[in-house]
């Protein structure tokens, strides 16, 4: 089955899509919102009491945490120059710069069992591999000390 990723025009739309994924996989979800330039993580230089960006927009950042195993957390960053991205953490493995439109597919891949860990004998190492629709794959290095029971159970 070919699944096309829909364009998510805002972080709130991405949060709604993640709520739907949580319902599909019967997961608890906890969402916290940071709104305003003085509240978001990437705008620490905004100054005290400054809530809008120089262009007058109000930045919105969201942190989504899913219950159950694997531990999964999504931080949706505000748009910078029209390009919004996310940090997805799977069992303490950080996957940086995931485009916002691909976040629901990434989470579905992890919960749906498509994500796996690739092991190499020489040089020894592990990588988290998350395939997405459209032949796109995200790969992230895993230090051996971060191998959790869930990650170890996905080694190929």
Describe the structure.
The chain has 156 residues and is α+β, with helices and mostly antiparallel strands. It starts with 10 loop residues before the first helix and ends with a helix. The strands form 2 sheets. A 5-stranded antiparallel sheet has the order 1-2-3-4-5, covered by helices on one side. The chain has a 3-stranded antiparallel sheet with strand order 6-7-8, with helices on one face. The model has no long low-confidence stretch (mean pLDDT 84). The chain has helices at residues 11-24, 103-111, 149-152, and strands spanning 29-35, 60-66, 72-76, 85-90, 93-99, 116-120, 125-132, 136-142. Strand 4 (85-90) and strand 5 (93-99) form a beta hairpin. The protein is built from 3 helices and 8 strands; from the N terminus they run αβββββαβββα.
How is the biggest beta sheet arranged? 5 strands, antiparallel
Strand tally, please?
8
What does the overall shape look like? globular
Radius of gyration: 17 Å
Average predicted confidence as pLDDT: 84
What pattern of helices and strands is seen along the backbone?
HEEEEEHEEEH
Separation of termini? Answer: 24 Å
Main sheet: strand order: 1-2-3-4-5
Task: Quickly count the helices.
Answer: 3
Q: Helix amount, in percent?
A: 10-25%
Strand content: 25-35%
Structural class call reads alpha+beta
Low-confidence stretches: none
């Amino acid at each position: 089955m070919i699944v096309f990723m829909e364009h998510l025009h805002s972080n709130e739309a991405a949060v709604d899509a993640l709520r739907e994924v949580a319902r599909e996989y019967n997961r608890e979800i906890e969402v916290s919102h940071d709104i305003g330039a003085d509240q978001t993580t990437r705008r620490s230089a905004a100054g005290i009491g400054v809530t809008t960006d120089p262009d007058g927009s109000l930045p919105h950042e969201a942190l989504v945490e899913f219950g159950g195993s694997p531990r999964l957390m999504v931080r949706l960053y505000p748009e910078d120059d029209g390009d919004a991205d996310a940090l997805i953490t799977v069992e303490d493995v950080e996957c940086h710069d995931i485009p916002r439109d691909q976040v629901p597919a990434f989470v579905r891949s992890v919960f749906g069992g498509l994500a796996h860990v690739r092991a190499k004998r020489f040089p020894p190492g592990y990588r988290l591999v998350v395939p997405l629709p459209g032949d796109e794959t995200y790969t992230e290095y895993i230090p051996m000390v971060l191998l959790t029971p869930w990650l170890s159970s996905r080694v190929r």
